[in-house]
Amino acid sequence: QSQCYYIKDAIICTGVMVRLTDRHPCELDYWWSRNPEYLKYWNLECPIVDPNVPIEGDWLRMIATSRKSFSMHGSCIGESFNIAFESRDLGVSHLSPRPLGKGGMRYAYFLRTSEGMYAVKRYNKETLKHITEALRITEDEAIMKEVHTYMAARELARRFNKTIPSQFRKATNFIKFLEPYVFRMRDEKGQLQIMFGEPYVEGEFIKWNSNAGYVNRK
User: Fold this and answer.
1) In sequence order, which residues have a C-beta less than 8 Å from that of residue 71 and are 6 or more positions away?
2) Residue 91 — left, alpha, or beta (φ > 0 → left; ψ -120 to 50 → alpha)?
3) How far apart are the first and last CA of the chain?
4) Using only C-alpha atoms, what is the Rg of the chain?
5) What's the pLDDT tens digit per position in 95-116?
6) Mean per-residue pLDDT for 20-36?
7) Lowest-pLDDT range, 5-9, 88-92, 121-125, 133-137?
8) Based on the number of CB atoms within 10 Å of its own CB, is 73 exposed (0-12), middle (13-18) or buried (19 or more)?
9) CB under 8 Å to 187, separation ≥6 — which residues?
10) In 3-state terms, the chain is what percent helix, strand and coil (to 5)?
11) pTM reported for the whole predicted model
């Protein structure tokens, strides 16, 4: 008679608990984060970051690896801006099974090659969704946009370094951008992976600033 409807055999959520953390929820020690079947069912799977991933071990073997290197032509702030590339075959390489770090957009992995160690980047699921649905471009196109940005930034840094007065040059830390690469790797199952990369640099990482306006004044 009241015309009210009741839900049976269901759990009703009456509130939401929010926990602020600098780590991904899947990396925290919850009962569900340790349950692979639960994560897969709810599409919560994500790489677990391990900054101490061993340099040797059960790494993923890539039976074919090529590396694209790039050169800039024209002005990075003009219509003549153009990027050329050349490709080099590196043969067999090995990719770390877990990422060594992450940012807001990508995970970083080790890639061990015949010509040294590199840090290669893979977009997270949220960024890939933005690339395909919002930007309406492919992952390959997004990677090449990153390369263009790196090359322009390297040129602007070179110009800035040249303007530093001679009396300050000995006591100044010059700005330098690492050389960008694009790696194409094929694993033993025949699957192709394309990843942005740069030479791996050992040492302590210090974040100077961010795209959101953060500046490290220490």
Assistant:
1) 83, 84, 85, 86
2) left
3) 69
4) 23
5) 998 888 888 889 999 999 999 9
6) 71
7) 5-9
8) exposed
9) 60, 61, 62, 63, 193
10) 20, 30, 50
11) 0.75
